[in-house]
Amino acid sequence: MQLTKIERVLLANQYRILERLDPENGEIYAVNYRVLESGFELNYALLDQIFKDGVSKEQCKEVLQILTMFETLYHGYLRATTAPDIKIEAISFSGFDEKEEAEHFAYAHFLVHDEGRFSVLKADKLNSQVPMLGVYRRMLWEWEKCADKHNLQHDDTVRIQAAQCGAESIPDAVWRAFVPRSFPPPVSFTSSGIDVADGRAKRDGSATRKGD
Question: For residues 100 and 131, is the Cβ–Cβ distance under 8 A?
Fold first, then answer.
């Protein structure tokens, strides 16, 4: 990265201002303006260390799907007068693992805390401390099969609840193939019509050839 003296002056001043406005990250800003004022070119690459790599559009959409599903499950549970076979703890959102699912966790935290959405979810329990994405995808798979996803029938909720404890995982190739189409998914993962090896849809029982 090459910076002119004017650019260095402007950026250094910005970091000095940020040091006062954001004392939690003050040490980072202080190092940054010292690097700029001294012109240490080797360290310019560290100037953006406070910025994360980002969360993809696909990951954001998946988080929205998951949170919407749990919000719908919650309201469906409240509408049910008697449902002894449905356990509220089994259909409640448990969060994402802040370490293993950092991107999903970050966007869920933003939606719930910064934007104030999905108020029925427990805002203090967004860090599951164990990976949950595989569980949520199994539940999503069943939720997408519902005739009316936002007004769940009893049988829908029971099926989604059961998926939480399912042993069958969704191959990444199958997930990538169906999610962009907004589903609906096949009855089971193994009968999905997707060649798990390369993610290509099968036609008439055989994998699609490259170039078809």
Answer: yes
Report the CATH number at residue 100.
1.10.3190.10
Distances in Å between the Cα of 161 and the Cα atoms of 87, 150, 204 are 8, 16, 33
3-state secondary structure 82-121: CCCCCCHHHHCCCCECCCCCHHHHHHHHHHHHHCCCCCCC
Domain co-membership, 161 together with 73: yes
Residues of the chain with pLDDT under 50: 180-181, 183-212
CB 33 within 8 A of CB 12: yes
Prediction pTM value: 0.64
Q: Which pLDDT score, from 0 to 100, does residue 180 have? A: 47
Structural contact between residues 126 and 112, judged by C-beta atoms closer than 8 angstroms: yes
Classify residue 189: in a domain, yes or no: no
